[in-house]
């Protein structure tokens, strides 16, 4: 009885052993394994039979090395690990990336670069050509990582541009439209003293949500009150701090638009501790339409951005870039990659 999966000497079967078993040359076996059409049906059948009989497994690492590829991409998150695992945004993004890679041979590396030491270590890793491309998530305006990656000539896609002039390929949701629809909804419910807890304003998407808030107020003829705008940072604790400051400054507010569901959860706690009913006294709207929004009491009205789809589209764009096997070269100044913007949708629930 034949023993599968062992070559001469009991080791892994080699390409040469497959060639000898099929009665062909080593190059012919290589062409069959790599799907070349320049092989006859009879030869292909003989090689495939030898591969099956010996249990030969192609050395994908060696093939990638020969093609000057690693068959790996990195998902780089310039945030602390604690934030990554605490906020639903990141898990949804990761799900989309995984979906796009499911039918490929690409491996995914998750790399945190939330401080200078981690960024330096990442720079060394990328300079050694350890990955074929990079996905960048949650990048702040002053983050040096995107420019560093561009200098190395590594294909990259960013989740949301750093500014309107972003040179890297980016995928984002319509943050301005989302902020506008959230605020317009509150105005439509008869609210007039609408507070806004922003996200981190060094993140372009947060700036655009705030711009959308202002646009909706202007369209309704409501003069913006700077006392009703309080900086946040997308976190639950940031939502608590901002809500406490807003209540102290403007206790007559009747609605809050928070830049994330997590922030809205923190704001809700402070409102309840202050004896404010939701939505009777204060209507509340979040952003992301995460599981938090659905499970909050009362369920939270939220702007749905297609985070999973964003992760999938980002990965597809990166795979398109890495499929073009050219020598690494810096992106010339002034050249802009595609900027993809996906639509958002307001999901109404009992909080407003």
From TrEMBL:
Start and end residues of each stretch annotated as Disordered: 329-352
PROSITE patterns: HTH_LACI_1, HTH_LACI_2
Any Pfam family hit: Peripla_BP_3
GO MF term (any one): DNA binding
Keywords of this entry: DNA-binding, Transcription, Transcription regulation
SUPFAM superfamilies documented for this protein: lambda repressor-like DNA-binding domains, Periplasmic binding protein-like I
HTH lacI-type domain boundaries: 13-67
SMART domains registered for this protein in UniProt: HTH_LACI
Lineage top rank: taxon: Bacteria
Segments of skewed composition (Polar residues): 341-352
Keyword DNA-binding in annotation: yes
Protein name from the UniProt record: LacI family DNA-binding transcriptional regulator
Provenance organism: Streptomyces chilikensis
High-level lineage: Bacteria, Bacillati, Actinomycetota, Actinomycetes, Kitasatosporales
């Amino acid at each position: 009885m034949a023993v599968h999966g062992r070559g001469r000497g009991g080791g892994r079967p080699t390409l040469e052993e497959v060639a000898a078993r099929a009665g062909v040359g080593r190059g012919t076996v290589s062409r069959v394994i790599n799907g070349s059409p320049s092989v006859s049906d009879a030869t292909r059948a003989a090689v495939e039979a030898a591969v099956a009989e010996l249990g030969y497994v192609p050395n994908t690492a060696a093939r990638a090395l020969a093609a000057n590829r690693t068959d790996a991409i990195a998902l780089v998150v310039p945030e602390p690990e604690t934030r990554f695992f605490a906020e639903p945004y990141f898990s949804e993004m990761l799900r989309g990336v995984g979906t796009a890679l499911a039918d490929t041979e690409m491996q995914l590396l998750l790399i945190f670069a939330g401080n200078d030491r981690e960024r330096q270590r990442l720079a060394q890793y990328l300079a050694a050509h350890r990955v074929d491309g990079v996905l960048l998530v949650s990048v702040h305006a002053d983050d040096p990582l995107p420019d560093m990656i561009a200098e190395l000539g590594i294909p990259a896609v960013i989740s949301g541009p750093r500014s309107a002039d972003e040179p890297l390929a980016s995928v984002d949701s319509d943050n301005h439209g989302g902020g506008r629809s959230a605020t317009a909804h509150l105005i439509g419910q008869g609210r007039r003293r609408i507070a806004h807890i922003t996200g981190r304003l060094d993140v372009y998407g947060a700036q655009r949500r705030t711009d959308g808030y202002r646009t909706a107020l202007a369209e309704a003829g409501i003069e913006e009150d700077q006392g009703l705008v309080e900086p946040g940072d997308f976190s639950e604790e940031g939502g608590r701090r901002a809500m406490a400051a807003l209540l102290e400054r403007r206790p007559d507010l009747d609605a809050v638009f928070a830049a994330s569901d997590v922030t809205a959860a923190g704001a809700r706690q402070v409102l309840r501790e202050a004896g404010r009913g939701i939505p009777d006294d204060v209507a509340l709207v979040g952003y992301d339409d995460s599981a938090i929004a659905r499970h909050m009491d009362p369920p939270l009205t939220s702007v749905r951005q297609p985070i999973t789809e964003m992760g999938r589209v980002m990965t597809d764009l990166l795979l398109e870039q890495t499929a073009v096997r050219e020598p690494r070269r810096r992106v010339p100044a002034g050249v802009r990659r595609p900027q993809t913007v996906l639509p958002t949708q307001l999901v109404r629930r009992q909080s407003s």
